[in-house]
Amino acid sequence: MKHVTSTSAAATQITHEPDHRRSGAAPRRFARVVAPLVLALLVVVGVALSAAVAYHNRLGVTNVDGISYMGIAREYANGWLPDAINAYWSPMVSWMMAPFIAAGLGMQTAFAVVNCFAVAVVLGIGGWLVWSQNHRIVPAVLFMVTAIPALMSAVSVQTPDLLVVAWVVGYLWALRWADQSLHGSTRARLVSGGVLGAVAAIGYFVKLFLLPVAVGAVILWLLLRVWSARRRREPVRHWWTSPVATIVVFAVVIAPWVGALTMKYGSPTLGSSLSVNIGSKFDDGGRATDWPFLPVPPNSHAFSPNEDFTPSVYKQGPMDNPDPAVVPPTDDAATTEDTAPKVTKDSGIAARAGYYLHERMLALPYYLQKISTFAPFAAPIALLFAAALVIGVVRFRRYAFTCIVAATTLVYFVGYGMITSSSSGGGNARYYWPLFYLTAMIGALMLPAVWRLVRRRGVVRTIVACVAIAVVPVASFTQNWIGSPAPFYPSVNRTEALRVTGPTDVPEIVRLADQIRASGALPEDATVIGSNYRSLSSLAFLTDTRVYGRSGQGYTYHSDAMRKLFIDQGVQYFVQFDPATAPARDYSMAGKLVGTYNATISCSADRSTDPEIPCRIQIVKFAK
C-alpha cells in the first residue's frame, strides 16, 4: 500500500504498514540509494539527448512568436527595460534567456539552453514525484522513459510551452506539499502555502494562461480535500491559513511586475494576451477588418509589430487601406456562409454566450485530434481514471495525489478547450503539451494498483496488461522521436526522425539570410515590408532588420498609394516573394532592385500552413 498519500494520521499509519512486512536491508538500500541513482541517470540521459537535438537545430527560427520572445530577451540583455516590459508576451522565458545573450550566446542558442533546463525540471521533479509516492522504481522509470521522446521533440521549439510543462510539474510538487501540510502545524501550512503562491506567481510570469490554471487547480484541490474531510468528519476550519498564505505571497511576488505594466500602459493590467485572444472569438469579420492595416514595430529595437499585440500599441499604425482597389486575400474555407460568425462584439450577453459555447463544441473534435497527434494514450488514460473514480475503485483518501494530478489535468484541458477554435483546426498542438505529461503521470502513479489487480487474474490478463502499459512509452517514442504514427494515430506534425547526431541542420531561410547579409542588400536596422510577412519576419530576425505589417494584408509595391504610405511610415525596402517559375517583374515604378535570391521556403501565400517550395526573393529599395 505504499501508493497511499500520507495526509492524515490514519493515512500515515496505513502507509507505514508495509515497512513492517518488508524489513529487509537490501530493499531499503535499493529504495534509498540505487533507485535515486537510476532516476538521476535517466535525467542526465534525457537532458543529454534533448541537448543534442537542440544543438542540431540551434540555427533555425521555428515560429514568429519565438522572434518576439527572443527580441524582448535581447532588450533585457542590453538594458532597454522600457522597451522590454511587455503586457502581451509573458516575461519569464525572456528573463531566463537574457543573461546568456548578454554573455555573448546567440539568441536561438539561449532559447535552447532555457528549454534544456525545462527538460531537466520535468524529468527530475516528475520522476521524483512518481517514485516518492510508492517508492517503486518501475512507475517512475515508465514516466521518464515516456517523457524523454516528447521532450526531445519539443526542445527546439522557440516558445515558452516547454517551460509551461516544467511549471505544471513544479506546481504539482507544490500542491502535494500544501496538501500534506493541511494536517500539520500552522507553520507548516503557512510555509507550504507561501511556496504554492510563489510557484503560482512563476506560472503567471511563464504564461498568463497559467494564472487561471493555478487558481482553478487550487480551488478544485480544496474542494476535494474539504469533501473528503467532511466524509470523515474531520475539522477543516484551521486550513484557512494555507490558501491565505498562497494569495498573499502570490500578490507580493507579482506586484512589481504588475506595477511596471501599469506604469507603461497607463492602466492597471495583469497582461493583455487573454483579453486579445478571447476577444478574437467574437470577431465578426476576421482580422482583416478588426486589426490595423499597417502595424508598426512598437519600438526602435523590435524586430516586428508582433512584439506587442496589446491593442493600444498594436493599433497605433495606419488603420485604413490606402488603396481600396487592393483587396487583402481571404481564406475561402473560413468565410463561407455556414462557417462565418453570426454574432458580433455588439451582440447581447446571451447571444454572445450561446455563440461562444456553440463554437467551442465545434472545436472540441479538432482539440482532441491535436492532442492525439502527440499523445494518443491521453484520452484512454483520462477516461479509465474517470471511470475508476465513478465506480469507486479509486478513492481520494487512498489516491490523494493522483486525484490532484487528475484535477489539474481537468482544469488545464477545460481551460484550453474554452479558447480553442475550429477555424484554426484546434490551434497549435504545443499549447496542449502538458496534457501528455499529466496523463502519463496518472498512468505511472496508478501502475502499482493496476499490477496488483491483474497479476492474480491469470497469464493472459497479465500479458494484455503488460502490452497496454508498454503502448504508452512506445507511442511516445514512435510519434515524437521517430515521427512514425502507425499504428497509434493516422498523422503527426513531423514525418521524419529527430536528428540526434550528425551535422548541424542549416535551414534554407538561414542560408538565404546569410546570402543577403553577405551581399549587403539589407543593412542592419533597415526597415522592410513584403508580400509574405511570415517568411520576411524570420529574415528580419536573422538579418537584424525591422519588418512592418502583418500577414494576409496583400501588400504590394506597384500601388502608388501603398508605396507612399510605406515611405511615410519609414519603410525603406520591399521584399517580393514569388515561386521560382513565376514571370520576371518590373520594379522601375517602385525603386531600385538591389538583390535577387533563390531558396526553398514558404512563399506562395502568407499562411503558417504553406509548404516550402522553390522561391525567388527580390529586394527593392524604395525611391523617395
Automatic annotation (TrEMBL):
Entry keyword set: Cell membrane, Glycosyltransferase, Membrane, Transferase, Transmembrane, Transmembrane helix
Chain segments annotated as transmembrane: 30-55, 112-131, 137-155, 198-227, 239-258, 371-392, 399-419, 431-451, 463-482
Region (Disordered): 1-23, 320-341
Listed Polar residues bias regions: 1-15
Predominant localisation class: membrane
Superkingdom, natural source: Bacteria
Record keyword Cell membrane present: yes
Subcellular location: Cell membrane
Topology of this chain in the membrane: Multi-pass membrane protein
Coiled-coil residue windows: none
Ranges of biased composition (kind: Low complexity): 322-338
Protein name: Dolichyl-phosphate-mannose-protein mannosyltransferase
